[in-house]
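Project standup — Tuesday

K.O.: blocked on the structure for the chain from last sprint. Re-posting the sequence here as requested.
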Amino acid sequence: MQMKNMFKYYLSNKRRGISLIFVMALTVFSIYFVTSLVQSIFSTVEYSNIACLNDFSFVYSVGGSSFLQNETVEKIKNDDSVGNAYPILLEYTVINNIFGTTSGYVAFMDEADIGEIFDDFSLTVTEGRLPEENSYELIMHEDMLKNKGLSVGDTFGSAVDEGEQIDGKYMITGAFSGDSYMAFGTKSYRQKELEELGLDFQNTTFGLLVTPKTDLDTMNNMLDTMGHDETAAMTLSYAKETLQENISSIKFLMFVIVIVIAVSISAAVCIVLETIYNDRMEEFGILYAIGYKKSWLFKNIIAEIMALVFISWILGLILSYGVLSLVAKSVFEPMGQMLSIVSIQSLLYTIIVMAVFVVVTILVTILKFAKKDLIAIIEMR
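H.V.: unblocked you, prediction finished:
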């Protein structure tokens, strides 16, 4: 017996099939698009706060103290895991993202030390030059410049931008590429303020940029266990742990929202499918009467639902990739930020939505269908 094509219904009723596919594809697009945008915030924060910590770490004063104790500085410099410990004054600048702001590092240090950092960690000057000694000048990572809408030769600081955290006015003398998303300068206005308070800047260490002799993890373990009430270390492990703590609640909220949307959309589409299959009971009754078993009908109904879901999922992903590519090109790239077009996490969220939809829809439809007396339906014609 030749088996009737169960997909013929949707080929003959294209409006219903297209409407169902459109709703489900739009759901996939919405989930993928929103979760990708939210993850872009995490990527931006990780890039601006963590990228440079793959090469070196920062040590700074806390607890009301403005500088590091001499014994702390000597202990770090003399540790076997430390390659160099450069004196710095560490400040933070505003980094913009599509939903708000985060912060990035600006290290003020000797011109010669900046040169060593660039040589040791493959930071390449792509435009301009390094800042000169004892000058209010900065060199910025090229992505940081994009984020701020600045170019080499522009001025930077609170004197020209009220929203900037770093006091004063600096000339941007250069741009560089490399893994360290940050800025370097030689002389800080904060240094001037501290000197006016009577601090001997030449003989006082306000912070350290610490590089490993061989292994970064070994050095960071030493720094992480060294901290006390007046000293803190910003290491790769600490920064990652802090970031995860800050975003864990957001990730959980995203998961809850995805599940709620999945169940809600499933319920809505189930109602539509129930109406469709109620209208098709006569068709199923005829197939049953001419010899097709209910198990065969069940399998084909399941195949229909899964085919609709799969087609919708693929179309939703294609739409997501297309729109995200445009957003990345027009919004994120000019801001010097990253937007992952292909995201495993976003993909998993869409799979969760589709899986919930398939399970709920199939259960409701099959249970409803199983209770029908198909022969009686034909006899009532």
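K.O.: great, moving the ticket to review. The chain has two domains: 8-45+244-379, 52-235. The chain has a mean pLDDT of 83.
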